[in-house]
Write a structure and sequence with these properties.
This protein has 387 residues and is mostly helical. Among the domains are: 1-174, Serine Threonine Protein Phosphatase 5, Tetratricopeptide repeat, CATH 1.25.40.10; 312-379, Arc Repressor Mutant, subunit A, CATH 1.10.10. Helix content is 64%, strand content 1%. The protein has helices at residues 5-14, 17-23, 29-44, 50-64, 68-81, 86-94, 99-117, 121-124, 136-151, 155-168, 176-187, 190-199, 206-220, 224-236, 240-244, 263-272, 274-278, 283-296, 312-325, 339-347, 365-379; strands at 327-328, 332-333. Strands 1-2 form a two-stranded antiparallel sheet. A hairpin with a 3-residue loop joins strand 1 and strand 2. The longest helix has 19 residues, at 99-117. The chain is elongated and about 95 Å long.
Length: 387
């Protein structure tokens, strides 16, 4: 690499300090240490690369420009000032219609970002990337390169980038672990997924706990460990199941803001983890069957002495009772459910509108919870303990 690492770290970092302040101080001691290290290096080197410094400022302007033509023009101006401006290449990649052409621009952004940092950064600063402000253009570029690789089917290469980014920045300020766990589960790499979940075991977000539940099912099937993992996931966010099971349609766009435990977090997870759940064909069936236990915090149906085995005699009695609701012309009965009852369930917000040609109805989130709970209470051979 032609330029010294110290010079590049200084120049790239100077313009980003203002952006960091707007987001508040780091919340981890390691982040604060890295920030202080950045400041010390800037003070130690007053000869910074002004060309790259000016180019970085121009790239920030490009990112904030309202029109594509303006963003492209500003990015090109940034590269005219310094060819080592990774963020300028990112802007151009985002504005490139052809996916393969965009991929090459993402690769270029990573390459020039690495050159701007210098070789010693990848020896001395491992563990502090992103915390060191001057590393952020490179980390942004590598993040977007990995996303582009995944979209184009270069799955192994994308996963390699995710692993390397977590090595450089184990604090994972960018949320790379969430992309990686989805990828590992979709690819069926269960051992790697288990190691990653253990590495960030204190994470209690929906994306982490629901991923842990899916992995537990993949490894052990409908078992006590899987059901207990599901209970933890439901405790973290009870809105996820409705989206995964199709009881609630996913919005076409992701929410602008995500709140822990609320509907927006569930939407974000269901979008990102769709491939992982589809890769385990029986997982959704297990989820639907085990959800009542997870929601109600009842005894695990797979625990010894509390098996949730449906009692066919109870089911037969219930069907007879429902047939009686449709009794007509003496001893004849309709084979469908009572329409008045379906209308009442719809009015209560538990099912979709039963009117129409569809032969089925869709549970709402609340309806699915109530239905699964009632099924176990009515039909389990061993009734659940009272709560």
């Amino acid at each position: 690499m032609a330029r010294g690492a110290k010079t590049k770290r200084k120049s790239a970092g100077r313009r980003r300090t203002k952006g960091m302040a707007a987001k508040g101080l780091p919340d981890r001691d390691s982040d604060l240490d890295a920030l202080l290290m950045s400041v010390v290096r800037m003070l130690d080197d007053d000869s910074g690369d002004e060309a790259l410094d000016l180019a970085q400022e121009k790239a920030f302007e490009a990112m904030e420009a309202p029109r594509a033509r303006e963003r492209i023009a500003l990015a090109r101006e940034a590269l005219a000032l310094s060819p080592l401006c990774a963020d300028a290449y990112l802007v151009l990649a985002r504005e490139t219609a052809d996916a393969n052409d965009a991929l090459e621009l993402y690769r270029k952004a990573v390459a020039v970002g690495a050159e701007a940092l210098g070789e010693t950064a990848f020896q001395d600063d491992v563990g502090s990337f992103w915390g060191l402000i001057q590393t952020r253009p490179y980390m942004r570029a590598r993040h977007e390169l990995a996303l582009a690789l995944w979209r184009l089917g270069h799955r192994d290469e994308a996963v390699g980038h995710y692993h390397e980014m977590l090595r450089l920045n184990p604090n994972d300020n960018q949320g790379i672990r969430y992309l990686l766990i989805d990828a590992l589960l979709e690819l069926g790499r269960e051992a790697d997924a288990d190691a990653l979940l253990e590495r960030y075991e204190e994470d209690d977000s929906a994306r982490w706990t629901w991923s842990a539940a899916l992995l537990a099912f993949r490894r052990t099937g409908n078992s006590a460990p899987a059901n207990k993992a599901l209970a933890r996931a439901v405790e973290a966010n009870r809105h996820v199941a409705a989206y995964l099971l199709g009881a609630k349609p996913l919005p076409p766009t992701l929410p602008g803001f995500i709140g822990m435990g609320d509907d927006s977090e569930a939407v974000a997870y269901a979008h990102s983890a769709a491939g992982a759940w589809e890769a385990a064909p029986e997982a959704k069936g297990w989820l639907a069957g085990a959800l009542a236990v997870a929601i109600g915090k009842e005894d695990d149906p797979q625990d010894a002495g509390h098996a949730y085995e449906p009692d066919p005699d109870r089911i037969d009695e219930a069907v007879l009772a429902l047939l009686a609701e449709g009794l007509h012309d003496g001893s004849r009965a309709w084979k469908t459910f009572d329409w008045d009852a379906l209308d009442r369930l719809h009015a209560k917000g538990l099912i979709s509108n039963p009117a129409g040609r569809a032969k089925s109805v869709v549970f709402t989130e609340a309806g699915l919870e109530a239905a699964l709970r009632s099924h176990r209470l009515l039909f389990a051979k061993t009734p659940p303990k009272s709560r």
